[in-house]
Request: fold
Amino acid sequence: QVELVESGGGLVQAGGSLRLSCEVSGRTFSLYRMGWFRRAPGRDREIVASVTWTGGIIGSTNYADSVKGRFTISRDNAKDMVFLQMSSLKPEDTAVYYCAAQKIGFNSFDYWGRGTQVTVSS
Reply:
């Protein structure tokens, strides 16, 4: 079992920055990839960014086109943490952001946090 707890959401003006954190606990050795997803009102959940949990200091990252160049995902395996640094925020980034984990040998993200609200005012 893996537990995920997000923090760092809040209200920010357009153009501002926020850093989301995800505390990972439990069977972390079983993890392959970590991701940040978001769900905006009236829209489907979408993946924002992901990073491999192992495989080097930085890991392999992927980003949604809508956040490339503005968001950066990173991890700290020593502290079992995953981060999402968000810059140049736009009102359309307003959503509940979720941390998620994918296990080794599986194709889907099976563990989810409860989410943290990010609101960007114009």
